[in-house]
Design a protein that fits this description.
This protein is mainly beta. Among the domains are: 31 residues; 96 residues, Carboxypeptidase-like, regulatory domain (Immunoglobulin-like, Sandwich); 148 residues, no CATH class. Helix content is 7%, strand content 40%. It is built from four helices and 34 strands. Strands 22-23-24-25-26 form a five-stranded antiparallel β-sheet, with no helix packed on it. A five-stranded mixed β-sheet has the order 27-31-30-29-28, with no helix packed on it. It has a four-stranded mixed β-sheet with strand order 6-3-10-8. A hairpin with a 4-residue loop joins strand 20 and strand 21. The two termini are 42 Å apart.
Length: 501
């Protein structure tokens, strides 16, 4: 197995040796920064429940200087004029709560001595635990400044990436292949819009424990920047991919396949079809087109592979699975081979009966809410939920299908409230959902669970999403974190989840 690094082909052990050398060189380059460690005052914010550092915690001084904890929960504080004295820091973070003093201020007064350290314990309200940022620059920036160890080979980020939108990922040839949408670069406000990609090793096969992080190795151009991997000869307009999956071709060889969309805007698709990854070139190539007026009979969302008595199938949905096709490369490319979910079961040549159709019938009085399959309610409020995008996976621990998805509206954020739900079948009924992550006026859209990271027999699961100011109405973007991917961990034995089971 190999990957393309610019125009250079690097194979197997050779790549691992080269990667080790690069990591050593980077270490030597950043090690002079450690000399500054004694001049910094270290603040670490930890989860009072687990003792682990919490990323994305904002510390703000009385005169409105803002500092954001890195992926280890650290801030390297060295602010001229504010050292060697007591400084008050307001402490806040999405889904976390810091104790208030007698005047109602949530924060702490700290003596900012160079070389000293303060640990602040914060209470987690979220059921899911925020772990680390996956993409972007400066992931462990403060830890590096403080001379603390970081788990990543490139703790300051890689691929010259400033931000990346919405991930799809699939195991392929013994590795994980990660792909994102629009990618921001550091040297200019415009990045590229034709899909970027990277690989990582699987846990237990050279990869990190998912609790620690993900070592990404980007496909890069000659400048070292994350390169387009799905250009398809297009000159204008972004190309986004979804429906990423692995399937055997006619020779029995596994191929990495995706659905691509050439778009003019969020609401206008110019062309869409099927593309297959060329291992030698390190990029996708178009193999088939789909009907522009039919976005159901094609791979989309995060595919689910499920064999049954009638064959081996891929199921697709956003997030509810309402279309399927046999796990065959030729049939994947043929829109007439797809079946969609109807009130009478799986059928061809008809419209899917999805959540939108159900809501319309309920509103018209033609369907009772209790008869719906795709209308979960919030178990805490009893209110209906309009689920946006997400993913569905089989869970061995629960012996049920579980969904991680974001709801649209109805909370402190428009696209930042993440829910957990269960169902006995892929087609539901999905009736109850429990909020597991919240955001205040900030988006966390397109969440996806990674079943290849499941631990303890599926009791512990991992998911990520795009943290973005987009659609939030918040005029202030979070430095470094904005428009990047953040990983969460969820323990399915948490008693608060029982309401959704």
């Amino acid at each position: 197995m190999h990957r393309i690094l610019g125009k250079q082909r690097v194979f197997g052990v050779g790549w691992r040796f080269l990667h080790l050398c690069i990591s050593c060189i980077l270490w030597l380059l950043i090690s002079p920064l450690y000399a500054a460690a004694p001049d910094c005052f270290q603040i670490q914010v930890v989860d009072e429940q687990t003792g682990r550092g919490v990323p994305l915690v904002e510390l703000e001084t009385v005169n409105h200087l803002r500092f954001i904890t890195d992926s280890a929960g650290r801030v390297a504080f060295n602010e001229p004029g504010l050292m060697k004295q007591e400084v008050f820091f307001f402490v806040r973070s999405h889904g976390y709560e810091f104790p208030k003093d007698g005047f109602g201020f949530a924060g702490a007064r700290l003596k900012t001595e160079p070389g000293a350290k303060a640990v602040l314990k914060i209470k987690r309200l979220n059921i899911a635990e925020r772990l680390y940022r996956i993409t972007g620059e400066g992931i462990y920036r403060d830890s590096v400044l403080l001379g603390e160890k970081a788990p990543l080979a490139e703790p300051l980020g890689s691929g010259q990436v400033a931000g990346q939108d919405s991930v799809v990922v699939a195991p392929y040839h013994g590795k994980l292949f990660w792909f994102w949408g629009d990618t921001n670069r550091l040297k200019y406000p415009l990045g590229h819009y034709w899909t970027s990609g990277a690989t990582s090793e699987l846990p237990g096969r050279g990869g990190l424990d998912p609790a620690a992080g993900v070592n990404l190795r980007y496909f890069v151009d000659s400048d070292g920047f994350s390169k387009p991997v799905c250009r398809l000869g297009v000159k204008d307009g972004p190309i986004w991919i979804d429906g990423l999956l692995t399937v055997a071709d006619g020779t029995g060889r596994d191929r990495l396949v995706c659905h691509y969309s050439h778009v003019k805007s969020l609401g206008e698709v110019l062309d869409h079809g099927l593309a297959v990854f060329n291992d030698d070139k390190g990029e996708f190539e178009r193999t088939a087109g789909f009907r522009l007026d039919d976005l159901a009979r094609c791979p989309h969302g995060h595919p689910i592979r499920r064999p049954d008595a009638s064959g081996d199938w891929f199921y697709f949905g956003n997030p509810f699975p309402v279309s399927r096709v046999k796990a065959d490369l030729k049939q994947l490319a043929d829109p007439d081979s797809y079946e969609v979910w109807t009130r009478g079961g799986w059928k061809r040549e008809t419209r899917p009966f999805d959540a939108t159709e159900e809501r319309a019938l309920i509103k018209a009085g033609q369907l009772k809410p209790g008869e719906a399959r795709f209308q979960p309610v919030d178990v805490d409020t009893g209110g209906p939920l309009a689920m946006h995008f997400g993913s569905v996976c089989w869970n061995d621990f629960r012996k049920r299908w579980i969904m991680i998805a974001v709801a649209r509206g109805g909370g402190p954020s428009f696209l930042g409230e993440v829910y957990y739900a269960e169902a006995p079948e892929l087609t539901g009924p999905w009736t109850r959902a429990k909020k597991i992550v919240t955001h205040y006026k900030y988006s966390f859209y397109n969440p996806v669970q990674h079943p290849f990271f499941d631990q303890a027999g599926g009791r512990v699961i991992y998911f990520e999403g795009t943290y973005a100011e987009t659609f939030s109405g918040n005029p202030v973007a979070t430095p470094r974190y904005d428009y990047n991917q953040i990983m969460y961990r969820l323990d399915l034995t948490d008693p608060r989840l029982k309401l959704a089971q």
